[in-house]
Write a structure and sequence with these properties.
The complex is a heterodimer of chains A (256) and B (1046). By secondary structure, chain A is mainly beta. Chain A has a domain at 11-133 and 200-244: outer membrane lipoprotein receptor (LolB), chain A, CATH 2.50.20.10. Chain A contains five helices and 13 strands. With 1046 residues, chain B is of the alpha+beta class. Helix content of chain B is 14%, strand content 31%. Chain B is built from ten helices and 66 strands. In chain B, strands 14, 15, 16, 17, 18 and 43 form a six-stranded mixed sheet that branches. In chain B, strands 60-66-65-62-63 form a five-stranded mixed sheet. Chain B has a four-stranded antiparallel sheet with strand order 1-58-57-56, with no helix packed on it. In chain B, helix 4 (876-915) packs antiparallel against helix 6 (953-965) and helix 5 runs antiparallel to helix 7. The two termini of chain B are 29 Å apart. The chains are: A mainly beta (256), B alpha+beta (1046).
């Protein structure tokens, strides 16, 4: 459930962005950022609330739908909620502590996250995406070349993040928008391949956001599809939303 | 009841009408978009393993090379394997992990266990990131590579033992060396164009010392030869700069295949098995200077071309393993051997025919063995073995299907018998779902179309049987030569053909065509010898070279392909392995030879497959295969005039020698071809081709068949088992008009509402499980370009135009497939402390549903048809009652959720007001809130989670909902009574709330006095508005309720 790289652009500018060969990695990143509304505009966003629906199980007959909300706040706070049968699961990071409430089996107290989950939620906190301001954040970006990916000519960028994780991003050569990414993540001590397909880009407050994300683990078809219904930039979100509650958490999740 | 065989589809395509695909259609692999082949496996019998290596660190990472199924990596010492080489040549000859970096692994492609069915490679590859990505580093023309050695002290120095071409001479063979990590290669040992390198070993203590076994060998379609003046054992002591042929103590005269192995713990000791007039094991104790014959036991001598591997224990220079027909071990430096897999010739549980053995250098009790039946792991120094069940590298020769639902597939495999397996199975298709139905090497296998309990199966050399599945009995029904006939010659892979129009009529091919009208109990010979009958090509008794190897694999001048026209049973096409193609138009009375009329086809080219045209009796599609003569070209042809003229169909986009060519039985422009390098599809009758890649590696596709009622493409690969591309409807609909449009909605077959599959149990991570088809309804569409901007979604409506669901759409250029689970949104359930079995909405009724594809501002309309599972035994009225009952409980759950939310909402209002008050007013409000809490506690469980044993109305309704929706037939009377009872309880609870709410008026008067906001019970409208997406869901339920007659 990684909402990364919002990507994007105003259609008028698209016509100009004809495929050009021999782009340097900096030029490609720059065009991506311009297409998405500009690096400064992204960095200026102080908070955001994203809501939508998550389909667990992809296209499978047993797919389960769950509404979700993701809240971001600078510099690195994030809170993810999803609801099943009126019960709300929460994962959050307040910049220091990562925690979760998973009430579905009766446990309503918050628990601190394990290291691997913490790493994932920190990834999600990078609201503006890895390419935005990447040098200052300590990421390294390398152009691995141009290749056709799932039928679309793409720039293949390798992002080595400050924490050592490696993401491979595919940017289409026409609009410089990310439409696919691949990452290897250590989950419970094992490396798992995660591939995400992004699409349905829409403009929100001058920024271009993907409104659809298909996530596949281990090379199969998408197991998780997220459809974003709204993006609220600059949403009022209190810091307390991100802090681990001292007592039984998550209002609706824990009836008295 | 079968799903309708005709694809009925309502579809409207915006701005494009369907026209016959007259125009050529340039396509590429992206055209097929997100259409995926699904792998059925199986891994239960697995397939031939040709190379193994592993690295030993904190964990054992295992690398396995399959004979024709790619490279597999296990990061958990062999519990699970994953394919990591699926974009490259699938035939693997050698794997070597760089001794100084376990993330760097070298792969030499092209197996060197050169049996008749062996595949081809295209050089050497390397990964530096543990298999995530591979670099092709040349030596393309070597065809096959037996070993790779990497200098442990200088990893840029790499040696490749290139065996070279099997069916033709070529100079790209011998020993190659790179000193720059594979950027460039130098051929440092070469004998001649007929002699390649068969084995190579490097002294682990002094890497400048290398031993190389050079081998002269050749195959033709009818003959194999191992040995000749080129063969010999060589040594270099200067890192490959110069080589000396080792002869002292080795047999004089011509030699064949040699295996050489250095004892790692004492490298002066070197062993070699040497194929010669008398094949034996030799040992040198002086770095190869001189040799002594030490053993000539059966397992040492047997089939040297196929078994030529020696492995010395890493810690004991006198302990030597000889993988072969069996696995034998010597503990006395090769002086004597004993069997390891049970006594004598008993193999225990392990498949015979061993080609690779890895011994853990850190723990020599831990071993991995590669056989014709997959890989095995031992932890007790080869005493007991565990079969690796996660390697679906099965090598099918052919595939067929029956007409059951779900249908089964049948096929035979290299050294692995004949098998039957289901096309879908609860929880996936696991090893236990497969049933062995024939022994030996299997080839063709068919279910009798009138009686699927009866199968026709065979093993090599023409041994045909009729097998009864239910009892396991087999009756030999092989035809014999009759008076006046020559001895029958049966191909290794003898064709069986079932008449497409006359059940019980069976064809079988020797050099003659045989026909049986009584399921094989008696046979007529209905042709003369349809081969060249060339005595020069019938020398299988002499085949093998130094070691005679007459396994029937070289039987020649035989019939290989048979096809009866589905339009006219008198029209028979027959092709032979020696390049003749015959047609009879009178049921076998007279025959005409046609191969000479085929333009551009070298004479004598093996006929690999014939399809009699499904649309016209004068049409046939024929593939020819010259690879056994060294001709790797793709030969595909079509005739429409009974073979008078032929059109070549191999065109842009196709590669690999051809095994099969078929026309789609619905769209005549749609062709499928299987070659050694994968599955290829043409949409314009063979003018353009593209490889189908999605989840299907470039593996040999030896056979394929289109299922006539399910419209699936069933693919037999020789190396990766069976694959199925489900539902060809969309592919059939791709025309130039569609492909020119930005977006088009495409037809799909009627979607069966599959019954719940019954109990499934826990598995084991080490078992490969084949994928089931989706149990969702499929909605297919075409996108010319990747969708990037704006919405792309699918909306599904019922007859009344009520929106039932919105599905996210795929974005890929080409075909996209989206699944609709055929259900309403999940029921509303009030929050509590544990989940109840109500995650999914109830199924919608069967019938046709309107579909809208929304792409930005464009909207296309079509429909999907839902049909009952053909096995569904429940009468329509029972199914209707089930759906109405499920829906009623669904509505009750919603009512309960509304009620529970009203209760807690009013309670929270009361508590909030109470906090602002004091004294009696406060106590009144608190008491009111407490009484609402009391009511709430009768609605949902508020304490204790899962396994607390507690249940209230929510839990009882949820459980009833789960039970009713799990069964598609009539609900039980108890369930109906329970529903009524719970409805009454719900009504009573609602009444209780209403009477409690009567107190609100009085409380509000107090609140008004204090200028506090009055209490306001939540209205249904306000509640709905709070629910995300509730409007659509509620409308959907109401619409469906109307449809069901409420």
């Amino acid at each position: 459930m990684k909402l990364q790289t919002g990507v994007w652009m105003v259609c008028v500018a698209l016509a100009v962005a004809a495929p050009v060969s021999a782009e340097t990695v900096d030029e490609i990143v720059q065009k991506n950022l311009e297409a998405r509304g500009g690096e400064q505009a992204w960095l200026a966003v102080q908070s955001a609330r994203v809501t939508g629906t998550m389909r667990l199980g992809g296209s499978a007959a047993g797919a389960v739908e769950a509404p979700f909300t993701i809240e971001f706040k600078r510099p690195d706070k994030v809170r993810v909620e999803f609801t099943l049968q009126g019960m709300t699961g929460v994962q959050a990071f307040d910049g220091t502590v990562g925690w979760a409430v998973m009430p579905f089996m009766g446990k309503t107290e918050p628990e601190e996250m394990a290291e691997d989950q913490l790493k994932q939620i920190k990834d999600q906190a990078e609201f503006e995406g890895v390419l935005c301001n990447f040098k200052a954040k300590g990421h390294a970006v390398e152009l691995l070349g141009e290749e056709e990916v799932d039928g679309t000519p793409a720039y293949k960028l390798k992002v080595t993040k400050a924490n050592g994780d490696v993401d491979v991003l595919y940017l289409d050569t026409e609009y410089f928008l990310e439409f696919k990414s691949e990452a290897t993540r250590e989950i419970q001590g094992t490396e798992v391949q995660v591939a995400s397909v992004l699409g349905d880009y829409k403009e929100v407050g001058g920024l271009l956001f993907p409104h659809s994300m298909e996530i596949a683990y281990g090379g199969g078809p998408a197991q998780q599809v997220m459809t974003i219904e709204s993006v609220e930039l600059g949403a009022e979100i209190a810091d307390e939303r991100f802090a681990m509650p001292a007592k039984p958490a998550a209002s609706e999740a824990a009836p008295q | 009841m079968k799903v309708q065989s005709v694809v009925t589809l309502v579809l409207v395509i915006a701005g494009a009408s369907i026209v016959a695909a007259e125009a050529p259609l340039a396509i590429d692999s992206a055209t097929f978009g997100g259409l995926r082949a699904r792998a059925l496996g199986p891994a239960v019998m697995s397939g031939r393993i040709s190379a193994i290596d592993a690295s030993v660190g904190d964990q054992v990472t295992v690398w396995i090379g399959a004979a024709s199924g790619g490279v597999w990596r296990s990061k958990n010492a062999g519990v699970t394997f994953e394919p990591v080489f699926d974009e490259h040549a699938q035939s693997i000859g050698a794997i070597r992990v760089d001794p100084s970096d376990p993330e760097t692994v070298w792969v030499g492609t092209g197996e060197t266990w050169v049996r008749n069915s062996v595949s081809i490679g295209d050089g050497v590859y390397r990964t530096k990131d543990g298999g995530e990505s591979w670099e092709h580093l040349g030596l393309e023309a070597t065809e096959r590579i037996a070993k790779i050695e990497v200098d442990p002290a200088n990893p840029k120095t790499v040696f490749v033992c290139a065996t070279g071409g099997l069916w033709s001479a070529n100079p790209e063979r011998g020993v190659y060396r790179s000193t720059d990590g594979g950027a460039s290669w130098e051929r440092i040992l070469f004998v001649d164009e007929d002699t390649g390198c068969a084995d190579l070993d490097m002294d682990p203590q002094e890497p400048r010392i290398l031993y190389a076994a050079m081998w002269q060998f050749r195959r033709s379609p009818h003959f194999f030869s191992s040995g000749g003046p080129g063969s010999g054992l060589y040594r270099s002591t200067d890192g490959g700069a110069s080589w000396t042929r080792l002869e002292k103590g080795l047999p004089s005269g011509e030699l064949g295949r040699i295996a050489v192995a250095i004892a790692p713990s004492r490298p002066a000791v070197v062993y070699a098995t040497v194929e010669a007039a008398k094949t034996a094991l030799y040992r040198s104790d002086n770095l190869g200077e001189s040799w002594v014959e030490v053993d000539d036991s059966m397992n040492v001598q047997m089939r040297p071309f196929y078994f030529s591997e020696l492995v010395v224990d890493p810690t004991d220079h006198l302990r030597l393993y000889k993988p072969g027909l069996s696995l034998t071990v010597s503990t006395d430096g090769g002086e004597s051997f004993s069997g390891l897999l049970g006594a004598g010739m008993s193999f225990g549980a392990v498949h015979p025919d061993h080609h690779a053995l890895w011994i853990n250098p850190a723990n020599p009790r831990h071993m991995i063995l590669g056989t014709d039946g997959g890989a095995y792991v031992s932890h007790d120094r080869a005493q007991r073995w565990l079969h690796v069940r996660s390697l679906p590298v099965s090598q099918f020769y052919h595939v067929s299907h029956d007409l059951e639902w779900p249908y089964n597939v049948y096929g035979g495999l290299q050294d692995n018998g004949s098998w039957k397996g289901p096309s879908r199975s609860p929880g996936g298709i696991s090893g236990g779902d497969w049933q062995v139905v024939g022994d030996g090497d299997g080839f063709w296998a068919f279910a009798d179309p009138q009686d699927p309990d009866t199968l026709y199966v065979e093993y090599q050399g023409g041994n045909l049987s009729r097998h009864t599945r239910s009892t396991g009995e087999s009756k030999s029904i092989q035809p014999y030569a009759r008076a006046g006939e020559e001895k029958l010659r049966f191909n290794w892979n003898t064709p069986i053909h079932l008449s497409p129009s006359r059940p019980g009529v069976l064809y079988y091919g020797s050099q003659y065509l045989h026909r049986s009208l009584d399921r094989g109990d008696s046979w007529q010979t209905i042709s003369p010898d349809l081969s060249t009958d060339d005595p020069g090509k019938q020398r299988q008794e002499e085949s093998g070279g130094l070691t005679i190897d007459n396994s029937s694999a070289e039987n020649h001048c035989t019939i290989f392909a048979i096809a009866e026209s589905p339009r006219n049973p008198e029209v028979l096409w027959v092709g032979s392995d020696d390049g003749l193609l015959h047609l009879s138009r009178d049921g076998g009375a007279t025959w005409a030879e046609l191969a000479g009329r085929v333009p551009g086809l070298p004479p004598g080219t093996w006929v690999s497959a014939i399809q009699a045209g499904p649309f016209a009796e004068g049409t046939a599609f024929v593939s020819f295969d010259g690879h056994r003569s060294g001709d790797m070209a793709t030969y595909l042809y079509r005739t429409d005039d009974f073979g008078a003229t032929w059109t070549p169909l191999a065109a842009e986009g196709i590669a690999g020698f051809a095994h099969v060519l078929k026309q789609d039985p619905v769209n005549p422009e749609l062709l499928y071809a299987g070659t050694e390098l994968g599955l290829f599809i043409s949409l314009d009758g063979g003018r353009h081709w593209a490889r189908f890649k999605e989840n299907l590696p470039p593996v040999a596709v030896n056979d394929l068949v289109v299922h006539p009622t399910e419209h699936d493409l069933i693919i037999a690969t020789h190396g990766r088992g069976i694959y199925i591309v489900d539902d060809l409807s969309a592919l059939r609909a791709l025309t130039a008009g569609i492909m020119a449009s930005e977006v088009a909605l495409l037809p799909s077959r009627p979607s069966p509402m599959v019954l719940a599959g019954g109990p499934t149990w826990f598995g084991s991570d080490d078992e490969f499980v084949g994928a089931n088809p989706s149990e969702s309804a499929t909605i297919d569409y075409w996108l010319r370009k990747r969708h990037l901007f704006g919405d792309l979604k699918i909306e599904v409506f019922d007859d009344d135009g009520t929106l039932l669901t919105t599905l996210p759409g795929g974005k890929r250029p080409g075909l996209n497939r989206v699944g609709w689970p055929m259900r309403l949104p999940p029921p509303k359930v009030p929050p509590a402390t544990a989940l109840v079995p109500a995650f999914q909405g109830p199924r919608v009724p069967e019938g046709s549903y309107r579909v809208r594809l929304v792409k930005g501002k464009e909207v296309l309309e079509g429909a999907v048809t839902l049909v009952p599972d053909p096995r569904n035994p429940h009468p329509a009225e029972d199914r209707l009652l089930q759906q109405r009952t499920a829906l009623e409980i669904y509505r009750q759950l919603e009512d309960l959720t509304f009620l529970a939310d009203r209760v807690t909402d009013l309670r929270d209002q009361a508590r909030a007001r109470a906090a602002a008050l004091a004294g009696k007013e406060r106590r009144e409000l608190e008491a009111f809130a407490d009484s609402l809490d009391g009511l709430h506690e009768t609605l949902v469980v508020t304490e204790g989670g899962w396994i607390s044993g507690r249940e209230e109305l929510r839990e009882r309704l949820g459980a009833l909902y789960g039970a009713v929706t799990a069964y598609e037939g009539r609900p039980s009377e108890s369930q109906l009574q329970r529903m009524a009872q719970l409805a009454a309880e719900l009504q009573a609870a609602a009444g209780s709330f209403d009477s409690k709410a009567e107190a609100v008026a009085g409380l509000n008067r107090s609140l008004a006095r204090r200028e506090l906001e009055p209490l306001a019970p939540l209205s249904r409208e306000a509640w709905r508005a709070r629910q995300q997406g509730a409007g659509a869901a509620a409308a959907a339920v109401l619409g469906l309720a109307a449809a069901l007659g409420f």
